[in-house]
Amino acid sequence: MQPTDDANLINITIFTPKPEHFSAFLDTHLEGLPRLGQLSQSLAAQFYVARDGRRAILISHFRDEAHLGEFQQSEALHAHRERLRPMLEDAESGLYNLVYVREPQPA
Question: In angstroms, rounded to a whole number, what is the distance separating the alpha carbons of residues 53 and 48?
Answer without folding.
Answer: 11
